[in-house]
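ARCHIVE CARD
Drawer: 12
Card no.: 0347
Subject: one protein chain, sequence and derived structure
Cross-reference: see card 0346
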Amino acid sequence: MLSKLAFLASFVAAVSANPVFRSLVVHEQRENAPDGFVMIGAAPANKMLNLRLALVNSDMAGLENSLYAVSTPGSALYGQHLTKEEVEAFVKPSSDSVSIVNQFLAANDIQANTISPAGDWLAFSIPVSKANEIFDADFSVFQHVQTGRQSVRTLTYSIPTELVGHLNLVHPTITFENPFANLPVVSSPLKAVAAAQNLTSRQSTPSSCKTLVTPSCLQDLYGIPTTLATQSSSTLGVSGFIDQFANKADLTSFLRAQRPDLPSSTTFTLQTLDGGSNPQSASEAGVEANLDTQYTVGIASGVPTVFISVGDDFHDGNLEGFLDIINFLLGESDPPHVLTTSYGQNENTISRSLATQLCNAYMQLGARGTSILFASGDGGVSGSQSGSCSAFLPTFPSGCPFMTSVGATTGVTETAADFSSGGFSNFFATPSYQSAAVSSFLSALGSTNSGRFNRSGRAFPDVSAQGENVEIVVGGETGTVAGTSCASPIFASVIALLNDRLVAAGKSPLGFLNPFLYSAAGTAALNDVTSGSNPGCNTNGFTARAGWDPVTGLGTPNFAKLLTAVGL
């Protein structure tokens, strides 16, 4: 009898020590699919889903404090960026979180792989039937009406109560694919080079940005120097997504026409991930990739530029490589000092939890000393090349407080480009570095557009640059494009040249830019743009005005003043 009681006690203890993961609680949900998506039926039970788990990080508040300490002028730690190991110490999950999540996976016969340097992201594949069972989900097929693209998503899912506080999210679940990549708009037909002009013989370009934007125009307008950078360690990264390939022959033609003073060997290097590549046939040259490389290599004279081509073998689960590229760079001992990206999506297509995870990834890279710049989007207050809406649509990642959002201007006396996306995040609160500037704008705005946007949200864009009538070469043809996609690489090139001077002087690169940009010295070094608007959602949108505004931000660069502002 005693032996039976002892056995029963040991059995109860064993059960207590090994969770059964049967009690579930709703973790994320959304009432409806985003505008433009319709559900067309249940997903096939045997369809395989590539799922990702984000574990709770150890100390993101501590990392945020450290980020601001190394990024805020006047701080005792300003410029003392963190090492790879120091960042990972803040980010890595606790041993308890790793243990309980692994127990959950083992209980369901799931083998997962770690896909981030700090071990906070795991990946695995399971069929729809199993995903529905263990997450109490209803995975269905959704179609984007305008593009016809289909994806498998659920509007709600649950996790075991034992994982609460240890698991941040499961992806992709309630986050929807990006229906519109933030690509430039071809604003005039690309014509054959021979028919348009003899690029090899042209020795100068118009100095006015009124009708045509070229490197010479930008040098005149913003005071960008043509002298070669000297520091090989200070690099500029250009993101490449969705099979956009950067063509070196087109770059050579562009530089021969626009920057004949640069060495004939001037080009970019290549890094790849997720099966990325960069084929060089003229027919595969990408408008976006060519724009981004031509207006970094052609503006940031002599700065080592790397084109980072992200393929379609995503490890981040239909985030189209957005998280993968950051984890890729976080895994490097010396990531680029500047990273420019001309892609994005509407904030309402992504879950708040996932947006936070991505934003935190930008925080990690910023703490390492990288300036992260993104185009703000091309739909005015309608978002990223978006159309119908009632409330204004913020874009992502522009709503993230740990990166720099770049809007667009046009003309010699610069005015806001009417497509320049800007507004206020519905996910992230106004960060302290911009609270005074945003408060001034809101006071001047009054009740205009009341109820259409989140007055307490992180405001964007932060800065701007030329984004219309920008000349590029694609597939041997020349033409012009427009979009905030033009503005981001232009502003990034200015930052890269500043970093080159700083490193040459024995100082640190700028890293996370916003605390500096919103400081008195940073703001005074920018050209304030006070006219134009960004209509959308059947409204006139916001209007540019003195000081910061959600169309052109704080303004466009003045290189000489920025050089002084950074202490050179």
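Annotation on reverse: The chain has two domains: 19-57+92-177, 185-443+460-565. The chain has a mean pLDDT of 91.
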